[in-house]
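Let's inspect a concrete specimen:
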Amino acid sequence: MKLKTLLLTLCMVSTAVLAQKVKYSKEERKEMNQYLFNEGFNTASDKKVSTIILKDNTEHQGYSKSWEKQKGQILSITIQDIDTKKSVKFAAADIAEMYLYATETEKSVKAAQFISNMRNYSTKKYSKSTTDEAILFENQTVSLKNKKESKAFLMQVINPEFNELISVYYDPFASTTATTGFAGAPAFGGGVIKSYYVKKGDKVMWLHKDDFEDNYDFLFGDNPEFMKKYPKNSVEWNYFSFLVYQYTDMSHG
């Protein structure tokens, strides 16, 4: 009886220890609050050469002319071939990956949005909003908002520098948390993106901030060192990009 009582006590103590929150310093929280994903874009320049690589490894180059979308995700794209000058349409299902360039207009809009929110000054890099580099899109079969019939889309990878284990894709229809500001002055707080499409292993899902805790173990639970340092009861959705980066780094370490 005493042994059972002792084991029960030890179990309760262990559970309490595991449930304790990790207390981070102000500097650590500032670092965790950094936004490390690239900006998402909804248009493509018809002035710069786009590159399309099909699943059979053939490559096509041309100027983006139009595309067909569903909920902002690309179902097909039409380019003007750089050599033949003819318009060619490609279905997302046939494309492995694609490289497009953002329009100058949309880059200007993104830059203005950056400047208009003071939160960005300490959490985002300005270059993430105004990139001149080619933007990577990958073929993924996904159910939009985890509700629609699964289809093949071309989705923008927003963590190309650290997507070896978890790929994060732009959600063009994502909402953001509210900001507070005054007329003519930059806003305070808010502006946090509420959803992304995320791939780990063979699973691709729409991840909303409200479902973050429920999916935390799936995303990061296979790395005990990470889970000890960043348990789900100690972190926030705002830290998502940092957590993906840290998980990738610690998994390779």
User: Anything to note?
Assistant: Confidence is low (pLDDT under 50) at residues 6-17. The beta strands are 50-54, 59-70, 73-81, 87-91, 95-100, 135-142, 151-156, 166-169, 195-200, 203-208.
